[in-house]
Structures are given as C-alpha cells and as structure tokens.
Write a structure and sequence with these properties.
Helix content is 51%, strand content 6%. The chain contains 18 helices and nine strands. Strand 6 and strand 7 form a beta hairpin. The two termini are 21 Å apart. The relative contact order is 0.14. This is NIBL1 protein. InterPro entries: Niban-like, Niban_1/2/3_dom, PH_domain.
Length: 738
C-alpha cells in the first residue's frame, strides 16, 4: 500500500519532469551551449574484460553463525561476488553471494557497528554483560552496513589487509552509488528532478544521502524512508527475546520488506518509463515544430514570476546566503584541490617510475608490460586511495546546520568520481600519444626522451582540465547547498501564490513548461551571480591552481581527439615478444586483473581445510571426520577461532604476497565438469529481477558473469521448475543484494 502510494505520486512528478527534460535536451541539441573543450581524451570502455580484484576473506554466515573463508571477486561492474573458494570460481560454479553495495557504509570497527544497530531500534538498549549481536575473531573487521538491507560481516588477519580490502570495498560503494547514467540527457535529469520535487512536496529540502544506486534502488529508499518508521513503531514492541536477538530479527524484517518494496517499485517504475517512451515521438515532434513559441511562452512566464519573486529572493540572498558563500567555497576548495594535486602527483610518479624501469630492464621489449599496468591506474583502489582520502578533510561544520546539509558524503563522492575520471583521461591521453610515437623511436634514449616529453604535454592538459572540472564542481556544490535553503525560506511567502501563474501557459505547451520549475530557475538566478563571482575571484587570485575563465588553452594536438576515436590499444598483444593472441572467447574467460590477490589462497586455513573436497551446491556440507588423527573440526565459537588463528599465525600457514601490488592476470578458469545447481537458502527468497539468470544445465560450461544489476535472491530462470527449499547444514544459499 505504501509503495503504491509513493510510486503513484512520484510517477506523476516523473511524467511532468520528462516533458521538461525532453524540451531542454532538444533545445540544447539545437542551440548548443557547451563549455570549454576538454584537452584530455576520454576512454569509452575503461574496464572491458577486466576484473578489479580477487582474494580470500573471512565471512560471517548468519544462518549457521560460523565464520567461513570465501573467495571474493570484484568484476568490472564493481559488484561483490563471493564464491565457496577459488576452486569453485575456476570451475564456474554459481557464487554464494552477489552484493550491489549501493547505499552501504564500510565500517572497520565492531563498536561503530553496534552503535548503529543500537540506534536502529529506539528503546532497545543492550544490558551490560549480555553478548553483543556480533563478535569478531580478529581485530580487523570489515562490516557492510545498510539502513534497510541486510548487513555483511567480514574480517581479515592483518591491518595491512584490512586497509586494502577497505579501499576495494569503498571503490565498489563509490561506483555503485553513482548508478544513474549521466549519458542520458532526458531520463536521468527527469528522474533526479522528480525525486527532488517529490521530497520538497513533503517539506524535505537539502541533500539526501540515499540518492544512491540505480533508479529502482533510489525509489526503494524513498519508500523505505517513509515506511520504516511506521514498521518500527508497529513491530518493534512485539519483538521477543534478548536484545541481540531482537536486533537480529529486526534487521531480517527490514531486509525482507526492502526486497518486497524493491520488486514492486521495479515493476511500477518500468511501467511509468514505458508510458513516457511511448509518448516521446509525439512530444519531440511538437517541440521541434513549435520550439520558438515554447521559448517565447516560457520567457513570458519567467518574467511574470521574476517580478513577483525576485525582490524577496534578493533580500534573502543578501541577508542569509551572500555572507557565507566565500566560507563554503573555501571549505570545498581546499580538500578538493589537494585531491586533484595528489592525482597529478600519483600520475607523474607512476609514469616516471615506469620510464626508469623500462630503460633499466630492456627498453621497448618491456614497455607493453608496464603500459598494461599503467593503463588501469585510475581503477587501482589502493594506489588511488591517497587521492580519495584528501576529501575526508571536507567539513562544513556550522555551515552544515545553517544550510540544512545532512551530510558532506554527497560532495565527497562526487569529487572522488571526478578524480578517478581525470586520472583515467590523463593515462589514456598519455598512452595514445606514446603509441603514436613508437614507430619513430630508435632506441632506449629516444624512448626515454619521448616519454618525458609526452608526460609534460599531458600534465599541461591535465592542469587545464582539472581547473575546468573543479570550477564546475564548486559551482554545482554551492548551488546544491544554497538553492534548497532559499526555496525553504521563500516557501511560506511564495509557494502558495504560484498557482495563479498557471493560466499564463498555453495548454499545448503545458507538457514542456512548469510553473514550479520556472520558479526554481528564477530563485537560482538570484544567487547564481554571487556564486559565479566567488569562483571567478578564486581563479583570478590563482587560489589552488585554478585558471581564469578568460584563459583558453589552444589545442596543440588538433588530431588528438581523432586518435581517441580509434581502436583501443592492447599493449599485451600488439607488440612482439608477447604471447600469441588468444581467441576472443578464451580472452573473455581469462579476464585480466587490475589489482593482484592480497594473500596466497593456497595456504590452508585452520577452519576450512585446504584438502577438503569441494561440496556440490545443493548438497549438505560434509562433516569433518572425528577421532584420533583426524583434522580438527571447524570451530564455531569466537574463542576457538581466536586460538586457531593464533596457531595459524605461529605456524605461518597463510602466505602474504609482497607488499607492492602488481597487475597479475587472473588465472585461467577451466570449464566445469557438470551443470551446477544453485543451493537455496532457508530464508524467505525474493523473486528474481527481470533479466537475472542462473546457469542452466545447457549452459553449465559457460563462464558465469554476474550482470550489472542483479537484484533477486532466487536465481532460477523463468519457466524452470522451482528448486527445493530444504535447509542444509550450513543454511547458506545464493543471496543477491540490491
């Protein structure tokens, strides 16, 4: 009922915003209003056929309350894919867990987690002496916490591993949070504007932390934001048992409800999208035919609203916004510019080190090996971490309360995404220019000089593009902070009077001109001049290496952008001295890896024997033999696990890789011997998402590649008979998170 109500109101907003967004897109296409041309090239498919990371990690299995060693793979879509072990991955068996980490927070302390869990059920306070909801067998936990969905518990053996896994997990969250494609000039703006309009209709202004993930995830969060407090007040008092048990039950209830909401939201939003797409040709035809009349009508409406709103808005800006713009800008500029400076430094260091290594180790013969590593520098979570960490300094403090900014995480993640993009643009431009020069080089000295010369050219381009990107980011962030504040301030005196302007819009153009949107544009204009001036002054003063707007970098490489349109460079296969090219099918299975495995998975672990046979999914886990001379059974309690880990650390059973990360390719994956059957959890399953498939007997030998948006817990393909729902000893099954 709640989902239907929220989605009904949202879809009405979306349909209105769709027409406005379509008009703006067509107008932009006709008039053109692009900013400065970027100097760096942009790679179209940066991670095709690559795996970001894979390695072993301990996971806590809630169903049987045991810690298990899992093999975790992070594919190009940044999902977390957990297999029984590496052998299961190589045999292409279905994964145990698939996690889309949008909306999750990465915690490295059990105390942090317990505080969030205690706050999730007001009035339920754990008594001293009672066992908490979670105990970790090591001092290095990694917990994925979500306000609505289920939580995931991991741990590792050392602080060094914890830092690396944390960087990998944070990269996954950062990427999955940015789930709404920016390539769409119609659907994406219509969706985000509709979300904003819906929340403002509920008197909720300002940034929203849960605007993360794909469209269905965002809408599910929108529903849960209203539904969860009602559920908590209804169900919370009825929960039985000790505090940890009640907390555990509440997490399971919240997750089950979230899955139900997701399925219903997905269906209703898809129907709304289909309706808008069906009307699009007619709307677009009207826009192109009557473009001039629509613009004239909109400007007439804007002039009337401006005469009514602008005097009040200017007073509000002068008294409540203008005095704080420079403070907000300075708070944004310092960490952001430090982050981009660190990107430049990391790029310079990596290219310089590569240059030295290539010259010292064999010149052109070694170049493809090092360039293959450099080409994915932007997607190396550990090497990029020093850049991302600079944004942790962002604090608005008193300004945050004044302007009703719930959290700075929105701005941090946006800046970090810009950093990664700028790094990849710089690397791609460097390798494109170097590739062009290779045919002219005579020896090591020529190669060294060319690399240095190209590096200097790319750094100049990076400085220019970095300045452009940062100035745009500062303007957008200032608008995101100040506009909701102004709208909230002006609402009591202005919003009620807007209805009278509706009569100024011709009925034929009502799909493309909205009074509410025009009102917001007028409010934006009232503060935009002050924001532009503040950013311009920062550039004139050369603060943080920002260029003035009047400074235009002439294109010293007129054909560079044509080079960027060519076939992507494959350094590993293009030059002599490299292995023979693999067939396309084999190359897809043998996915290259950006970051190497942290620890050697061949070292046997104390409570998951390296010699034990791989159990077939769907069958009970074999019991370890007991008796004299038999291997010890898997410890269940934290005490036993601690003792086992202590013995393991003394015995040196876990081999650590060398500290420096390398881009070693993932090992080849042999075909499975037989068709795998997915094991089903005894928890309440959710229906599969549209398009989600599981390996069938006919395709059992195909490489299992998780899709970009896997959202169902049950992986049975449509039309196939349902699988049994009996429990196994582990009680564990394929679980796909949103």
């Amino acid at each position: 009922e709640k989902t239907g109500k929220v989605l009904g109101e949202f879809c009405r907003c979306y349909k209105e915003q769709y027409g406005v967004s379509l008009f703006n897109s067509v107008r932009y296409e006709i008039e053109g209003n692009g900013g400065p041309q970027a100097q760096l090239l942009h790679r179209k498919l940066p991670l095709e056929n690559h795996v970001i990371y894979s390695g072993n990690i301990f996971q806590y299995i809630e169903e049987n309350k045991k810690w298990r060693n899992r093999f975790c793979v992070v594919p190009h879509n940044y999902g977390l894919v957990l297999y029984e072990n590496k052998l299961a991955y190589e045999r292409e068996l279905p994964p145990r867990v698939l996690v889309n980490s949008a909306g999750y927070k990465i915690l490295t302390s059990v105390d942090q987690y317990l505080e969030l869990v205690n706050n999730s059920l007001p009035g339920v306070i754990p008594k001293s002496g009672h066992a908490p909801i979670l105990k970790c067998p090591t001092d290095f936990p990694l917990i994925l916490w979500h306000p609505y969905a289920r939580h995931y518990y991991f741990c590792v053996m050392t602080g060094k591993e914890q830092e690396k896994w944390r960087a990998v997990f944070q990269d996954c969250v950062r990427h999955c949070n940015n789930g709404i494609s920016e390539d769409s000039r119609v659907e994406a703006p219509a969706f985000t504007d509709a979300v904003r309009m819906y929340r403002q209709s509920k008197e909720q202004y300002g940034t929203w932390d849960m605007l993360c993930g794909n469209e269905t995830q965002v809408l599910s969060n929108l529903v849960m934001e209203e539904l969860l407090p009602e559920l908590r007040s209804t169900i919370g008092p009825r929960l039985k048992g000790k505090t940890p048990e009640r907390q555990r039950t509440w997490i399971q209830i919240s997750d089950a409800v979230y899955r139900m909401v997701y399925e219903q939201t997905n269906a209703q939003y898809a129907a709304a999208m289909a309706g808008c797409e069906q009307e699009r040709p007619q709307l677009e035809s009207t826009i192109r035919t009557d473009m001039d009349q629509i613009i004239t009508s909109k400007e007439h409406l804007a002039s009337k609203i401006r005469a009514f709103v602008l005097p009040k808005a200017e007073v509000c800006v002068r008294n409540h916004v203008q005095p704080y713009i420079s403070s907000i800008l300075e708070a944004l500029m310092t960490p952001t510019s430090q982050g981009f400076a660190e990107v430049r430094e990391v790029f310079f260091k990596e290219v310089t080190d590569m240059n030295m290594n290539v010259i010292n180790e064999g010149g052109l013969e070694k170049l493809p090996e090092y360039m293959a590593k450099l080409s994915h520098l932007a997607f190396h979570p550990v090497k990029m971490q020093s850049c991302y960490e600079k944004m942790d300094q962002l604090k608005l403090e008193g300004l945050q309360q004044r302007f009703d900014v719930s959290s700075t995480s929105v701005f941090k993640q946006r800046a970090q995404i810009h950093m990664r993009q700028q790094m990849d643009d710089a690397v791609y431009t460097f390798e494109t220019l170097l590739h062009q020069e290779l045919g002219k080089l005579q020896g090591k000295d020529d190669l060294c000089k060319s690399i240095q010369r190209i590096l200097e050219r790319v750094l100049k381009k990076f400085d220019y593009d970095s300045s452009t990107v940062r100035k745009k980011f500062f303007r957008e962030a200032l608008l995101q902070i100040t506009i909701p504040f102004l709208l909230k301030k002006l609402a009591p005196t202005c919003k009620g009077e807007l209805a009278k302007f509706q009569e100024l819009i011709f009925e034929d153009f009502a799909s493309f001109i909205l009074v509410e949107n025009t009102y917001e544009e007028v409010v934006l204009q009232s503060v935009m001049k002050d924001i532009m001036q503040a950013v311009k002054e920062a550039a004139v003063q050369r603060k943080h290496n920002l260029y003035r707007d009047s400074m235009v970098m002439h294109n010293s490489d007129p054909n560079l952008h044509l080079l960027g349109e060519g076939i992507p460079i494959d350094w590993g296969e293009e030059y002599p001295g490299q292995p023979e090219p693999e067939p396309a099918a084999d190359r897809r299975r043998r996915a290259k890896q950006v970051v190497s495995v942290i620890q050697d998975d061949e070292g046997s672990l104390p409570y998951e024997m390296g010699t034990e046979a791989l159990p077939q999914p769907g069958s009970p886990e074999p019991r370890e033999p007991q008796g004299p001379g038999a291997p010890p059974s898997s410890p269940d309690g934290v005490k036993e696990i601690r003792e086992a880990l202590a013995q393991e650390s003394l015995g040196g059973g876990v081999e650590e890789e060398e500290e420096q990360l390398t881009n070693a390719p993932a090992s080849p994956r042999p075909r499975a011997d037989g068709p795998p059957q997915a094991e089903v959890s005894h928890v309440t399953p959710a229906s599969p998402a549209p398009g989600a498939e599981s390996p069938s007997p006919a395709s059992g030998t195909a490489c299992h590649q998780p899709s970009d948006q896997e959202t169902g817990e049950d992986v049975t393909p449509p039309g196939s008979p349902p699988q049994p729902t009996g429990t196994t000893e582990s009680g564990e099954g394929v679980q796909t998170e949103f």
